[in-house]
Structures are given as structure tokens and as C-alpha cells.
Amino acid sequence: VCCRGDNRARVDRLDSRLSYQTRLKARSLRTPEMVGHLKDIRRCDEHDDVDFRDENELKRFVRPGKWLSLNAGSVRLLRVNVVSTGLAIVLLWGFVIWGLVNPRYMFAQVNEWKSWISYNFTWFYIGAFNAWIVFLLYVAFSKYGKIKLGRADEKPEFNNVSWFSMLFSCGIAVGVYTLGVAEPMSYYRGSYGLQGRGPAPITDDERAQQALLQTFYHWGLHAWSPYITVALGLGIVCYRWNMPLTMRSAFYPLIGNIIYSPVGDIIDAVSIACTTFGVCTSLGLGVDQIVAYYAALQDKSYSALERIDAQTATIIVMTIVANISVVLGLHKGIQVLSTITFSLGLFVLIATLFLDNTWFLLNSVVQSTGHYLQYVVQIGFRTDAFEQLGIEFGTRNLLWGSNKASKPDGVWSGPLLDIMNNAAAQRTDDITTPFAYGPTFPSGPAEMMDWWTIFYWGWWVSWAPFVGMFIARISRGRTIRQIVVGALVAPTLFSFLWLGVWGSLGIKMQRVAELVLGDGQWNLFGSSDCSAWGYVGNVPNSAAAIALANDGYYAVACRRFPMLDIMAPFKEVKEFLWGLLLIGITLYFITSSDSGSYVDDVISANGLANPPIGQKVFWCWTEGAVAIALLRGGYESGQNALGAVQAVSIVAGLPFTVAICFMCTSIWRALKIDSGDADICHANLFSTGTLDIFDLYRTGPADGPSTARYTLAERLTNYAQSIFAPFIGIFKTCESLFGEGSVLAKLHGFVNFSFFVLWLVFLIVSGSDSDYAWIGWTFYLFMAFQISFIRGYVRTQHNIYGNMFEDFFGALVMYPNIVSQLHYQSKEPAPSNDVYRKPVTAA
């Protein structure tokens, strides 16, 4: 979907624009030997337009038997990849049925999964998000930043205002409406210990500043980093290499034709599921606000059941409207709605800025932005290591490897708590021990990461497939630098304005309430005493609290929907602003739903540019059904319905966090290939692949025959040997490196044999004491170190592009694949004999 016009004229036109050195480099890469291995890469500057509205053109990228094309007369009904779509449907609708049939059990399991992920993978989430930001900024301001998603002379499809409106609308806008006041207020008056996140909050002013800093952190650069990473991964491959706009394409520079295998199908299916669960999280939060705003305008209240019924009805109505928008398409529907909703939100923001203490609000935004810039590194690497240490001493110990097993009563605790309880029973005084961890070692709550940061990171990642693909779709014609600056930095600063203004208004209103309703003492721990302030069930009850409320001021920390409250002092115009808020969040709700449906539809259709309308409608209703199932299931199980929705986003986000890390490697390879860097374009490849077993060792393009030299039986036999006797492959490989029968080859073979046997022996004896298993896994880790070292040595000898991190990860998680690959590479007398040639250049 990249180039138009006559091919010869285009090449002449390109060559006339480029410098002599660039043209010389380009010509040096366009050799017959290299081009012969690049059938699937058709760079936009050198090939005619690929029209992915043409079903026959798309079939070049689908394995035979996976494509379903169904018509009813002349009406198109279905155009889908049956494998990836089927997997996604089974996962999503299976989840819906589970939630409706047995909601209590399902939500108990989902919440346990969520906590398990938060406790065990905090380090991974925190590290990954920081790595993505560094990677994006480096790429943007390197020589690769000038690369355009499309032809060198291509102009952006959308103007700057429409582009920014659409990416902001689908990115974070619903959340800003929902949590723009509630989140900073939770930190300010939620008894959170915010130490370690910037300067220690000694005074209440510093606590207020810390509340805004923590909020900015969750909605700043880190929030947008997974979106932009996915957008670049898709944009480079799809708009420069003429591949279909589907998630698997982003991994083509890394795994080549394996994207057409079940590996690619799983990537697309997980992307659809992540998109749906991520959108449902926002729909759940958004519909709660919509119902609340409507109730405020009508001056009515709902019971719990009435609220769930109203939320269900709202989702149904909004889904119908989203259907209309997604059927109209990107230009007529989504673009128009995004521009309107962005303008409404901006109007309300500016109005509140003018209606209240403008100078205080501007001071707060500038000051809070400065705090963010100063402390973003410190807070960005904060994992609450010592706060979460207390989890190991409690009864909710879900830490991997330290809880041993669940107690009969369902309480999770580890051996350390048992040891402490046993020793405490021997004390002869009357003091009850062991003491609680928190009061003994005062700090923030151990669940801070679980409740807030990891929830956000999981939420952003679960949105990444849909927002990233959507940003890629609307960013064609822009350079990488423009995308990173425009879609990473600009939205971050703009969201700071929203959060800074509305969050500061909430803090100001809370202080007004405490000056009247409090005891005049410093709130040392930042706690909320709503009963002392005259509130019962989120409603002002005392005469003083009612008098304040009549003038539009509330103890915001005691209220459920503080976004409405901060506009209550504006008297005559408050209902006008509430109406705009209701319209704005409703339209943001719709744009999120139709954008998510659009992405689900395109992925299920394997990148087909114009899928049948029926498919678009199906995915709209699937999102609505999942959201309704989560909300109603949460209610039926007696749990917080929104909490259940949030838990699902964290669970869905973990696998895609791993995928985005691999996507960074894929992007880096793609940029080097596209720029003609010699270290990758003139490098060789392994003679066999590490993942080709998942495609039964077929190595050709989707629509072509396999080019593998070895038979299926040979590969499977060697793979079995690599599983049960990896030391044989290691020995053969080392003989090719150090000489037949050499001492080094024998030594490496013996060391690998020792590590492998000790790993198995300690796993076997762990039946008597589970600690032996960890000794066994330590030997396994050292075996992975050895295999990765040998693979790096082989790459150097054969001039194969790669790095030590890829070597180690491969050896760690799939050592048989790596050992088998090394075994076959050892048979190659020269790099020129490689037969499994994954495309490595975009010549």
C-alpha cells in the first residue's frame, strides 16, 4: 500500500533526489544474489503499489488453507484468516461464557492471576517500559529518524490537527475523564506512603506535589511508549516494505517467513484478545462515568442493581453508535468523531482554567511538569522492592518459589511465615508476635504496584496492539522523528495540562473542605476521615458539609465522581459543563470502541484494507459483550465489577509485553536493513531457523514451496537428539570451531553433559526437598550461558548478524532449537552455503 505510478520513472525520480553516496550504497545492495532472497520484500521506493483491497494480492501472505472467503450471492460475508480469528473468538467468547456461567470462581481466579503477575513481574514491567522509552528516543534522534513511513516524497494522509486528535482520542482520553481527579486525590488523601518517588513528602504541600507527580508518571512518556513502539514496528514494514497491516508483519524482520506459521497466527490472536480486553477496561471505566454524569444532570441516584442495568444499557446504545462509525470508515466516521471529542474536551479544560484560580492552576502545571522532568528517572525505576518484601511475610504470598503450596483454607503463605509463627510461640512474655510488617517497618502499602502502577502498565500494553496499529494507520507519510515527537512527547505534555489543571482543582477543593470540616491539625499521614468531615456513604450529612455542598464545595476524597464536583462551584454554568463532559466522554467511548473494532477487524482479515461490513459489526458487538460480561459477572460475584475489568487487562498485557520487547529488536533490524547498513545487509544467516519447527520446517514464503535442504524426518530426529542429548550437538559444533577431536571440543561437550545431567538429577531429587529444584535450575542457567557463548562464537565465524542477548534468550527458553541449529550450521563449510535465508535486506 505504498507506491503509485510507473516503476521505472519512480526509480529515476528517487535516484535524482539522493546523494551520490546514497545511490552508490543502494546500488551495491541491489545485487542479483541478494534480491533472489527477497521475494517478500517490495520496498515502496522500488516497486509498484500493493493494493491490499485486492484479495488475491493479500493471499500472497497467507498459507494455503487458512484463508476463508465467503459470499452470499454478490454480497461479501467473510474474509478472514480462520486460524488466528478462530483462536481469538474461542478465547474471547470462552471468557464471556465462563464469566456468565460461573462468575464468582472466574473473578477469584482472575484477581489471583493479576496479583501473581504484579508481585512476580514488577521488575519486568518497570524495566521494559524504561527500555522502550530509551529505544524510541534513540531511534528518533539517530540517523534513522529521517526514515519516512512511505515513499520519500509521500505526504501525510491527515493534517496535524486531525492526526493529533485521533491519536489522543484513542490513546488515553477516556482515562483522563475517569481518573483525572480521582487518581491524584487517591494519592493525596489515600494514606499512601509516597517516599522514594521524588522528595519525601514532609509537608502537605509536598504531599500534594507528590500526588501530581505520581499521576504524571502513570500518564506520561511511559504510557505512550508501547503505543509508539508498535506503531513504528508496523509502519516500517507495512508502509515501506509493502506487507499487510497486521500484527504479525511487525515481526517479519526478526523471524522472516515464520510469521506465516502458527507463531504468526498466535501473535494475531493474542493481539485481538489484548485489544478487546484493553478496550473493555476503558469501556467499563467510561460507562461508569457516563451513568454518573447522566444521574447528576437528572439529579437522581441508582441502587447497585440499577447502576449495572444502566451501564449495560449504555454499552448497548454506545455499541450501536460505534457500529455506525466503524461502518462509515476511518475518514467519515472515526476522524470526524475524534476531532469533535478532542475539541469538546479542550473547551471544558480551558473553561475550567478560566473559571477558577487561573494563576494557581498554571503555576501548578508548570511546577508539576518540572518535578516530573527532574524525578522521572527515579520514579520510573521504582519497584517498591522493600514494600513488597512484606508480601513474603503475609498470608497473600503469591511470590513464585516462596509460597510452596496453598494452605487448605486457601490462604497463601510461605515457609518463612511458618518459621516465624513457630518461633513466636516460644516467647514467654505476653506480647503477640510476629508483628505486622507495615507498622514495624513504616512505608507505603505493598499493594501500591498491584493497585496502580502495574495495573496501568498492563492496561497500556493491552491497548498497544490497537492504539499502535491505529497510530501506524494514520501516520503514513510521516518520519520516525515526527511520530516519536508528535505521538510520544506532545501527547505527554498535553495530558499534563489536563491532569495538572483538574488534579489541582481537586486538591484545592479538598483543602477548602478540610479548613471548614476538619480539626485544624496537620494531616500527617494524608488520610481521609469522612465521618469526621460529616459524610455518610459519599454524601454530605452534617449541617456544615451540606452548607458547603450547596455552594459547590465537597470533601473530594469522600466522593465517588470528583470530576463532577470540581465544576460544581461554577454555579450557573456547571450543568452546561457537565453536559459537555457527558457528550465528550460518550464520544470518546465511541471512538475507543470503533477504533478497537477497526483494528480487530483488520487483524482478523490478515490486513485486508476493506473487510466486509458484517465483520466490523461482529467485532463491535464482541467488545460490547465482553464488557457487559465483565461488569455483570463482577456484580453477580459480589465483587467490584470495575476491579474485575481492570484485573483482566493486567493478565492480558503480560504476554504482549514480552512481544513488544521482541518487536524492538525487529524494528532495529528493519531500520538497519532499510538504511543499507553493511553489518546486517552483507551478513549471512544460519542454515536453519530456530522457530521453523512451528511451521514443520517449511522455509519458503506463504505462497511458495519450501526451500529447506533437510527432510522433515532428519530435522525431527535431530531435534529429539537435541532435547535428550544436547551435548552431542554441542560437541559436533565445537569440533567445527576448534578442530576435530580437539581438547576444547571435548571439554565443552563434557561441561554441557555435566550441566544437563545435574539439572535433571536435582529436579528428580526435588521430590524429597523442593529446594533441590532451584539448584537444578541453576545448573540449567549455566548450560544456557554455555550454549549462548558457543552460538556467539559461531555467528562470528560465519559472519552471521545477531547479538548476545538474542543468543542467551534463545538458549534459555528453547535450548533444543538452538542446539539443533548449531548442529546443522557446523556442517556448513562456508557461509555461502546457507540455505535457510530469511530476508535480511530491503535492497
Quick description:
By secondary structure, the protein is mainly alpha-helical.
Task: Describe it.
By secondary structure, this protein is mainly α. Helices cover 65% and strands 2% of the residues. It has helices spanning 7-17, 20-29, 32-35, 55-58, 82-101, 103-140, 160-171, 173-179, 182-188, 204-219, 221-240, 252-255, 262-298, 304-328, 330-355, 358-380, 385-389, 415-424, 437-440, 448-474, 480-517, 543-550, 562-565, 574-604, 613-636, 641-675, 678-681, 712-724, 726-738, 743-765, 771-798, 804-813, 815-825, and strands spanning 67-72, 75-81, 535-536, 539-540. It has a two-stranded antiparallel ribbon with strand order 1-2. A two-stranded antiparallel ribbon has the order 3-4. Helix 11 (221-240) runs antiparallel to helix 21, helix 14 crosses helix 15 (330-355) and helix 16 packs across helix 21 (480-517). The longest helix has 38 residues, at 103-140.
